[in-house]
């Protein structure tokens, strides 16, 4: 029986289709006047959110925008205002995918939004500490949380430097850096460009 069973098992295994290799996560490089930040995006965990973010990158939407809200010990936020603190016109909101199991840990990037859980458009923030209170809890107004869709893979020192800039109130905006932090360019890179994959 053993001599018959083993070849049979091998035959079954050989006939099974192997799953396709998982596609590499997208990688976005953000150039600021304080240095560069490299992001890896979790397309399998937050497909609609990543697609939305990449569409803004492809349209050069983030170029010459600013990090307009900085709170030490919390996060840095940008992706929607011009150097003159004017809000840019955005695309329709993206559905909240915060129920994807990802947490708002230090170095992760998540979508900014209003009190409406499904109101995120272009603005994003980078967590500078573990912000568990922003995580998904349930599908209620207060429980939806904020969708994490990637993480910083290079440039946390730049994030920390931005986090430590003094802030002030400007018009209706609070926590605005006293020194303008400009996103000069955001561009999509290849898998090989990802710092984690460079030898």
Q: What's the pLDDT, averaged over the residues? A: 89
| N-to-C series of helices and strands | HEEHEEEEEHEEE
Q: How many structural domains in the coordinates? A: 1
Q: How helical, in percent, are the residues?
A: 10-25%
The biggest beta sheet reads:
8 strands, antiparallel, barrel
Query: What's the overall geometry?
Result: globular
CATH topology: Cyclophilin
Give me the count of strands. Answer: 10
Give the helix/strand class: alpha+beta
Q: Any idea what the CATH architecture is?
A: Beta Barrel
Report the portion of residues in β strands. 25-35%
Low-confidence stretches: 1-22
Name the features.
199 residues; alpha+beta; Cyclophilin; eight-stranded antiparallel beta barrel; two-stranded antiparallel ribbon; 10 strands; 17% helix
Task: Describe what this molecule looks like in 3D.
- With 199 residues, this protein is of the alpha+beta class.
- The protein has a single domain (22-192), classed as Beta Barrel (Cyclophilin), CATH 2.40.100.10.
- Helices cover 17% and strands 30% of the residues.
- It is built from 3 helices and 10 strands.
- The strands form 2 sheets. It has an 8-stranded antiparallel β-barrel. Strands 8-9 form a two-stranded antiparallel sheet.
- The longest helix has 14 residues, at 2-15.
- The radius of gyration is 21 Å and the shape is globular.
- The model is unreliable at 1-22 (pLDDT under 50).
Chain-wise SSE layout:
Blueprint: H1 2-15, E1 27-32, E2 35-41, H2 47-58, E3 65-71, E4 75-82, E5 108-111, E6 124-127, E7 148-154, H3 156-163, E8 167-170, E9 173-177, E10 182-189
Antiparallel strand pairs: 1-2, 1-10, 2-7, 3-4, 3-10, 4-6, 5-6, 5-7, 8-9
